[in-house]
Design a protein that fits this description.
heterodimer, A: mainly alpha, MetI-like fold, 2 domains, two-stranded antiparallel sheet, globular, B: alpha/beta, Rossmann fold, six-stranded mixed sheet, 10 helices, 10 strands
Chain lengths: 304, 271
């Protein structure tokens, strides 16, 4: 008996010639077109609103743009946006530090230490926090910080409220990124006698940085754009923010976009367009900066 | 304890470097497992100082688990348990007060697949040196050069010490990991199939390197490659189903093994 005969049991019969050059069956061709079509449609569904937003913002803002909005603070008749720009930057910096540190540390805890039931409960709690509507968090911040602690409308109240909103995103992405770090890095560090903390600082966190940065970017984008929680906590101010954390309201760009748009005066409407443009530019700058930082820190990784 | 190397010796005529009782590490009644599975059963085994000991045996025989018990790399595996002792220079590494960091500085390890860290080539060599605060900054350059020369990688990488190790070939990456392990000055080096992902020429280079390191360093190597065990080791241990069947001089183990199981395995009739 030949080996071919012996091995043929249970195999597909060998009598169809393997045609390497023929046309594939029509249903495969059709399925291919449908698949690609669905992908293209999905891309269009994402890209179209983005293009529309950019077009709407730039198209309205550019004709009325004055460079002086960057340097003048607001006044009763319009003025500039300097106070709101500085206020938004203060909020960004504050959330970046506060939510960034709490979020990354939470993510490290969830990924490296939280086991079993503790981990499940904490992860669930974090998801619940992420699911709370921002206006509810804003109201809680208002009652707890602005009223109960007598901080009044203030930077501190805004930062804490926005951080509560954004920490879950940073924690989740940090945890996911740390879990994806290859075990070989951890084992190598362990076998070399590195302390767990050193291994985390020098190797694991560094390898997880792109993922952590993604979460941080989402948090920053939320902080730049959120309006509801800030209405309750930051208040609004026409003058440049003071350096005090409490008892001093802060102006911020989304408020301008949201409120000035409905004012009858042309000057205010123009400011609202300008504010929207500045917000978009801020987000773009953040993304570019984050990309640069990530590329620099990842220059020694396997992907390069 | 001095790590200076005595006169060089050839592999064919193994000279056990005698310091005290000549035993670097010793397992005494070691049983080890995970959950309800026992992987190692009541093992007694001596690793002679300054020699190369090869651990051979079929897949699942427990040789890698045993290797990893010598620097306690099994500790973190879920449901790990052990009975018995592993002695390093006469003291039990499983004693409650033992510092894992200090243990692993004395007992280094090289893995099956090269695992450079995501940092520059020079930083990789220095990773352990910095972690243990072994030398000051002014010595870093010298350490990097010395260790890379020791593994024969210096010529290839001296011009790109600051660049990524992941552009190196697999063999070069493994040599870099060896340089990294040597840089902390270990007394014992554990190798888990270190050449299984390397090409024959690099493998030959690594084997020659191990032989030259041996008198100063105690080496334990797990290998599936019987020819390699024969080429590099002074003594060979045959593991089968979690038990140590036989540990004796390599030549004897391959040419006149005492146990039929060993004979079957080394002659290719089993495994």
């Amino acid at each position: 008996m030949t080996t071919a005969g012996a091995g043929a049991a249970g195999r597909v019969p060998d009598n169809t010639p393997l045609d390497l050059y023929g046309r594939p069956a029509w249903h495969r061709v059709a399925a291919g077109y449908v698949g690609w079509g669905a992908c293209g449609l999905a891309v269009a569904l994402i890209a179209a609103p983005l293009a529309s937003v950019l077009w709407g913002v730039i198209g309205r803002a550019v004709p009325v743009w004055r460079w002086s909005v960057l340097t003048e603070a607001g006044n009763g008749q319009g003025g500039g946006l300097a106070n709101e720009i500085v206020g938004t930057l203060f909020i960004l910096a504050g959330v970046s530090v506060l939510a960034g540190s709490v979020g990354v540390l939470s993510g490290i805890y969830l990924s490296e230490y939280a086991r079993g039931r503790t981990g499940a409960v904490l992860r669930g709690a974090s998801e619940v926090l992420a699911g709370i509507p921002s206006i509810v968090l804003g109201y809680v911040g208002y009652i707890a910080l602005v009223i109960a602690l007598h901080w009044q409308y203030s930077l501190a109240a805004a930062l804490i409220t926005l951080s509560a909103l954004t920490v879950p995103y940073i924690a989740k992405s940090t945890e996911a990124a740390l879990r994806q770090v290859p075990t070989t890095y951890r084992e190598g560090a362990e076998a070399l006698g590195m302390s767990p903390l050193r291994s985390l600082r020098r190797i694991t966190l560094k390898a997880a940085l792109p993922g952590i940065t993604t979460g941080w970017l989402v948090a920053m984008a939320i902080s730049v754009g959120e309006t509801a929680p800030l209405l309750y906590t930051a208040g609004f101010s026409d003058s440049l923010p003071s350096l005090s954390l409490t008892h001093s309201p802060v102006g911020y760009l989304p408020y301008v976009v949201w409120t000035f748009y409905n004012y009858p005066a042309k000057a205010f409407q123009s400011l609202s367009y300008d504010a929207a443009l500045i917000l978009v530019v801020m987000v773009l700058v953040l993304i570019v900066l984050a990309r640069i930082v990530v590329a620099f820190t990842q220059r020694h990784t396997e992907r390069n | 304890m001095s790590l200076s190397s005595p006169a060089a010796r050839s592999v064919d005529s193994p000279v056990v470097v005698d310091r005290g009782d000549g035993v670097a590490m010793r397992a005494r009644g070691l049983s080890l497992g995970f959950g309800s599975t026992a992987v190692l059963a009541d093992l007694d085994l001596d690793i002679h100082r300054g020699t190369i000991t090869a651990l051979i045996g079929p897949t699942g025989s427990g040789k890698t688990t045993f290797l990893r018990s010598l620097n306690r790399m099994n500790d973190k595996v879920a449901k790990h348990w052990h009975r018995g002792d592993v002695l390093l220079d006469g003291s039990n590494i499983y004693s409650p007060g033992v510092q894992l960091m200090a243990l692993r500085r004395r007992v280094g390890m090289l893995f099956q697949r090269p695992n450079p860290f995501p940092m520059s080539i020079a930083e990789n060599v220095l990773a352990g040196v910095k972690a243990h605060g072994i030398a000051g900054k002014q010595h870093y350059r010298a350490i990097v050069e010395a260790r890379l020369r020791e593994v024969g990688l210096w010529e290839a990488v001296s011009s790109r010490l600051g660049s990524s190790p992941f552009n190196l070939s697999g063999g070069q990456q493994q040599l870099l990991c060896l340089a990294r392990a040597l840089a902390t000055g270990p007394e014992v080096l554990l190798l888990d199939e270190p050449t299984s992902s390397l090409d024959p020429i690099t493998t030959e280079h690594v084997e020659a390197l191990l032989r030259s390191l041996a008198p100063a360093l105690t080496i334990v190597i797990v290998t599936h490659n019987l020819a390699q065990a024969r080429r590099v080791s002074n003594r060979t241990a045959f593991f089968y189903q979690g038990r140590l069947v036989e540990l004796t001089d390599t030549t004897k183990l391959f040419e006149s093994p005492e146990h039929p199981e060993t004979a079957n395995y080394v002659s290719g009739r089993m495994g």
